[in-house]
Write a structure and sequence with these properties.
The chain is α/β, with parallel strands linked by helices and 426 residues long. The chain contains 19 helices and 7 strands. The strands form 2 sheets. The protein has a 5-stranded parallel beta sheet with strand order 2-3-4-1-5, with helices on both faces. A two-stranded antiparallel sheet has the order 6-7. Strand 3, helix 6 and strand 4 form a beta-alpha-beta unit. Helix 4 crosses helix 5 and helix 17 runs antiparallel to helix 18. The longest helix has 18 residues. The chain starts with 18 loop residues before the first helix and ends in an 8-residue tail after the last helix.
């Protein structure tokens, strides 16, 4: 399977027309003085679409873009973001690194096994050198969608590098999710922390924030015509706008679920409720694929097919159906929920026994000890056992060997908690 137009997984690149926001992003890409631009807003407001516009504009302008789209399942997985940012740049940027730095970075990116415990400072220094060399050849943009879910190890390494590089040598375009009464979202307590970390790494006043406001009724109507091919009357649009707070994703889901859009649109009291109604109407195989994609930190098609094997009639057909239905997308060699809310709701709809079964299956198909340990911890809900403690300890050792000290400490703490009282760690 290859990326791009030849993929069996096409993507929808329709652009929501927000003129003011587009102009602000265009000014940033052109180099308006700020070193970083953070696009903020509630879940479903269109941040990622605008972020994608900025990435495309930067590529067209000859900027080298290093991008990652963080996911909630990756938050606790060390160097997941860094693997995206540097995993596709080839070997040339690593060629001039001192051997100790190259070995440490290769281990962090899982390109090669580490030789002993890697130092976080060595990895961060290697990242700094790679970014310095790249920016000496052409402008570099680090693009991070859902910055609030970026893992700690990547955040630390990137912050270390930005503090030591000349201002504007490497610029950052990121999105963060904000809370809202209409669309409360799990995991966004780190949004402020991540923005503060970015500001701490860059000179004062060099980080701008672009808040994406709710859509007007007219813009909602335009988006719905573009995405769904439906035209709503002015009274229905007003009612839809009032009920969704001008949130385009929620409005699209509501209209998609409505059998009759000529009259009042019946909406559950939350975006999650609207999405849940849609997902319950999907074939069971599609829901299994979506939940599996949402639970994996790096859901390649092959890994997802292994994860759903035995739970669906035909794993490949089920993955294709999930993409064709529009709840899963394929880009950059990996699958992902078409919107993070779809993935989180799919997991929320699982019964406790189904969630346990899912994570036990995934523990057996993922490729490294750290991921396996975290899936087992979720599957067992941390119930003490010698077996779980041993798996967590192995995961902690693997994370430490890669230089992911915070992840290693977290797993080691879980290992202590999971150790039965009668079987203390020596």
């Amino acid at each position: 399977m290859t990326d791009g137009g030849s993929s069996r997984y096409p993507t929808d690149n329709a652009l929501v027309e927000r003129a003011d926001e587009q102009r602000a992003i265009a000014r940033f890409v052109a180099g308006d003085g700020s070193a970083a631009l953070v696009i903020s807003g509630e879940a479903g407001c269109g941040k990622s679409t605008l972020w994608g516009l900025g990435v495309a504009s930067a590529v067209d302008a000859g900027v080298r873009v290093l991008s990652t789209r963080a996911a909630q399942a990756e938050t606790s997985l060390s160097f997941a973001g860094l693997a995206d940012l540097l995993g596709r740049v080839g070997t040339d940027p690593f060629a001039h690194l001192p051997e100790v730095q190259r070995s440490a970075l290769d281990a962090a990116l899982l390109r090669a096994p580490g030789t002993g415990t890697m130092s976080p400072r060595t990895i961060a220094t290697a990242v700094t050198s790679v970014l310095r060399d790249m920016s000496g050849e052409q402008p570099v943009l680090v693009a991070i969608d859902d910055l609030h879910w970026l893992d700690d190890a990547t955040t630390d390494a990137l912050g270390f590098a930005l503090r030591r590089l000349p201002v504007h040598a490497v610029r950052v375009l990121a999105t963060v999710r904000t809370e809202s009464a209409l669309t409360p979202s799990a995991g966004t307590g780190t949004s402020t922390d991540r923005i503060d970390s970015l500001r701490a790494a860059l000179p004062p006043g060099s980080v701008d924030t672009l808040h994406v406001p709710p859509c007007s009724p007219e813009l909602l109507g335009s988006i719905i015509r573009q995405r769904l091919g439906r035209t709503l009357s002015a009274p229905v649009l007003e009612q839809l706008h009032d009920r969704t707070g001008g949130n385009p994703f929620w409005a699209i889901e509501a209209v998609r679920a409505a059998r009759d859009v000529a009259g009042p649109v019946d909406l559950p009291e939350s975006l999650a409720g609207t999405v849940a109604t849609r997902l319950r109407a999907l074939p069971a195989d599609v829901r299994v694929v979506l939940a599996t994609v949402a639970a994996l930190s790096h859901p390649t098609p092959e890994l997802v097919e292994r994860g759903v094997d035995g739970r669906v009639v035909d794993a490949t057909a089920a993955v294709d159906a999930a993409v064709a239905t529009g709840v899963v997308e394929y880009a950059g060699g990996r699958l992902r929920p078409a919107h993070p809310v779809l993935g989180s709701v799919a997991l929320d709809l699982l019964l406790p026994s189904q969630r346990t079964s899912l994570h036990r299956r995934l523990a057996d198909v993922v490729g490294d000890a750290e991921q396996r340990a975290r899936h087992l911890a979720v599957a067992t809900a941390g119930t003490p056992s010698a077996e779980l403690a041993a798996e967590l300890d192995t995961g902690a050792t693997a994370a430490q060997a890669r230089g992911a000290i915070r992840s290693a400490a977290s797993l080691a703490e879980l290992a202590v908690t999971a150790t039965p009282a009668a079987d203390p760690i020596a």
